[in-house]
Amino acid sequence: MSVIAKHINPKFQHLFQDRFCFTPNEYELLLSYMQFQHIHKKDFYLRPGEICRTKAYLNKGCTRNFVVDERGHERILFFAFEDWWLGDFDSYYTQKPGTNYVQAIEDCELLVISKENFAMLEERIPKLKQWYTYKVTRSASASLKRMEEIRTLTPKERYLNLIEQHPHIFQRIPLQYIASFLNIEPQSLSRMRKRLAEER
Amino acid sequence: MSVIAKHINPKFQHLFQDRFCFTPNEYELLLSYMQFQHIHKKDFYLRPGEICRTKAYLNKGCTRNFVVDERGHERILFFAFEDWWLGDFDSYYTQKPGTNYVQAIEDCELLVISKENFAMLEERIPKLKQWYTYKVTRSASASLKRMEEIRTLTPKERYLNLIEQHPHIFQRIPLQYIASFLNIEPQSLSRMRKRLAEER
DNA sequence: CGTCTATTTGAATGTACTCAAAAGCGGTGG
DNA sequence: CCACCGCTTTTGAGTACATTCAAATAGACG
Known about the structure:
The structure is a homodimer.
Chain A: H1 10-19, H2 24-32, E1 35-39, E2 44-46, E3 54-60, E4 63-68, E5 74-80, E6 84-86, H3 89-94, E7 101-104, E8 108-114, H4 115-124, H5 126-152, H6 155-165, H7 169-172, H8 175-182, H9 186-199
Antiparallel strand pairs in A: 1-8, 2-7, 3-6, 3-8, 4-5, 4-7
Helix pairs in contact in A: 4-5, 8-9
The structure holds a DNA duplex.
C-alpha cells in the first residue's frame, strides 16, 4: 500500500473499492497517479486566467467556485464538499484560461491528478470512465436544474429548498456565501431566516 | 444528387461543403441519412415525456425550447433559428424522457437524423465529429454565460443585451416569448420598451 | 366582419435592494 | 486571559422596481 494511503479519508477507498468495485490493483493504480495536497482556509486552488490542467478529489474540507461580475460582486456557482471534484470545468475541457475562483472555505485535503493522467487511466480502467461519464451527465442535469430554480423560484423558495436538501449547511458555510449562492443579499437572507424562525 | 437536395436551403450545403470542407461524397452521405420534414407554426417537434431519439437541423423557420414550471408558467430556455439543431439535449444524451417542449414559432423545415445514424456517420466522417464536439463545447459555454446573465444583470440590461446581439428579434419572435426568455412579465417588457424608445 | 389572442396602459402592492449603523464573533497579540 | 481589531451578521428606514390584477386597445386569422 502506498505511503499516501494512510492519510486518505476512508470514504475514498470505500468509494472506489466498494461502490465502483475497483480491484485493489485498480485502486492502487489510480492512487499512484494522485498527489496529496493541503490548502488552507481562504487559499485558492484556482484563479481566473489560469488554465485548469488538473482535477482534485476533495478528500476533506469544502470549497466554493465563484466568479466576479462587472460590478465587482462575487457570485458563487457552487460549493464542493467531501467526495466531489474541484476544478474550473469549462477551462478543463477547453484548456483555455478559466473564469472561476476555486477557494477553500475550510482547510482542505486534495488528491490531485493531471488531465492527461486521468485520461490515460480512464482507458486502462474502464470502470473509471463509466463513473466519470455518469458524473458528467449528473452535473449537466444539476446545472439545468439550478438554472430552472434561479429562474422560477422566489428567493424564499430557493432558501427553503436549500435547507431542506442541506439542513446542516449553515454549520459549515458562512451566511454571506449562502446568500451569494442563492443570489440574494446577505441582509435579505438574514431577515428571511429570522422571519421563518419566528413563524414556527 | 438526391431528390431531397433540391429543397435544401443553400446554407446547408454551403455550411458543410465550404465551411467544414466536406467532400461532395461526404455531403451526400450525410444527406442520405436525413429526412426532410415540415412542421407548422405552433406544432411541436417534441413534448415532455418523450425520449429525444433524433436531432433535426433547422433549415428554415424558428422554434423555442421551453418547460412549464410548477405554477403552470412557460419558461423559454432558448430560441433556435436557421442553422441550429433542435432537440431536448438532456434527453438526447441520457435517452430518458425529456422535459422540454420544442415548438415551431414559424413554419419550419427540418432535416431529421436519428441518434444512431448520426453516431455512425461521426465515425465515418471525422470532420462531422470535430464539428459536433465544437458545437457541444460552444453550447456548454453559452449556457454558462446565460446563467451568469440571469444572475447578474437587471431585466433592463438583459433586454438591452438581447437587442444589441439580435436587433431584429422582435421581427420574428412575439413579445411574450421574448419576455419569457428574459425572465420578465410581458407587461414589464412592453413598458420597458416604451420607456427606452421615449428616452431617445 | 367578428372572434380570439397579443399588446399596451393604469393603479396598487410587495419584496428585495440600498445605505447606514449597531451588535456579535473570532482571532491575535499584549 | 483579556482587550482590541476586523469581519460577519443583524437591524432599521426608505426606495425602487417588477409584479399583480384589471381593463382597454390593437392585431391576426378565419
